[in-house]
Amino acid sequence: MKRIAVVEDNADNLLLLHAILEDVYRIQAYEAGGEALAGIRAEQPDLILLDISLPGMDGTEVLAALRADPALRHIPVVALTAHAMAGDRERYLAAGFDDYIAKPILDPDQLLATIARWLEARSPR
Q1: How far apart are CA 27 and CA 46, in angstroms?
Q2: pLDDT at residue 125 above 60?
Q3: Which residue did the predictor score with more confidence, 88 or 67?
Q4: Is residue 7 within 8 Å of 62, Cβ to Cβ?
Q5: Which domains does the chain have, with CATH numbers?
Q6: With the C-alpha atoms ordered 21, 13, 33, 69, is the resulting torsion angle positive or negative?
Q7: How far apart are CA 25 and CA 22, in angstroms?
């Protein structure tokens, strides 16, 4: 079973993500950036869903640390954010995120398709 790290500090959003993903993927949840980095280094998940607005270390700082680490930089990272204004998607992709999903998650199928696309792209052919 593929492993997904979910970094999300909102309990309701975390419950929703678990409900959508838990039958298909093994989920490891983190509520803060520093905690997530330590867990991701230890677990080496197949994909990371990363909230932008986190306490302490925000999502872009976590992403920078992931991309700077040779052991982690290959892991696809999808931004999860309530920032859904014009230009936000482009800004997060330019910052190094592999993809972007706006919250609240209104279409679980879109989330699942995005995850599947990145996991397939990462799989050896």
Answers
A1: 10
A2: no
A3: 67
A4: yes
A5: 3-122 (3.40.50.2300)
A6: positive
A7: 5
